[in-house]
Amino acid sequence: MSLKNRISSVITLAFAVAAFATFASAQDATPAPKGDEQKAEKHERGFGRHGGKGRHGGMRGMRGMRGLHGIELTDAQKAQIRQIHEANKPSEEVMNELRTIRETRRNGGTITDAQKQRMQALRQEMRAKHEGVRAQVLAILTPEQRTQLEARKAEMQKRREEFRQKRQELRQQRRDTAKPVEKPTDN
To answer: Which element (helix H / strand E) includes 183?
Structure first.
């Protein structure tokens, strides 16, 4: 192989490596979303921190019926439950008011007594509305479905208690390992 061919091959190889590196780095150029961007992206997709479709607001899919998961509902029951949830959905004004108060507190601002009282009143309203919705939904269920719901509720309570117990044990283990060993003192 002549010197000219060798130089040509080396230059071609160097160009190919540089081109490959450029294309490979371009594939990884989009950074992962951070902080607020990541939250916005999750919100856009409709998924929150609980892996479901969120906790507040209207009905998307089966959101309002996630407590009824595992219970066979008829299409008519599902439609009635959707209507109940839609009728009792908090208004945008109330949600915005709660959001602004929460943001003020989160950003280190002080909340006035009037805002605290308003927030407490809104929470009580929402609890009462929630209990009303729960009663209406239970009225729609058949006796067998109510029995299934109670059995599922008892099972979830048992799981929660087991989880609390495990968490308590882990905390105790961490405390035990974190305690400094006391050395005897010479007196």
So the answer is: none
Q: CB count, 10 Å around CB of 171?
A: 10
User: How would you class 30 by CB atoms within 10 Å of its CB: exposed for 0-12, middle for 13-18, buried for 19 or more?
Assistant: exposed
pTM over 0.85? The answer is no
Task: Count, in order, helices (H) and strands (E) of the chain.
Answer: 6, 0
Helix axis angle, 113-140 relative to 75-87, nearest 10°? Answer: 160
Q: Summarize pLDDT for 80-91 with one digit per residue, the tens.
A: 999 999 998 888
Distance CA 133, CA 84 (A): 7
Q: What is the DSSP letter of 112?
A: -
Find the length of the chain.
Answer: 187
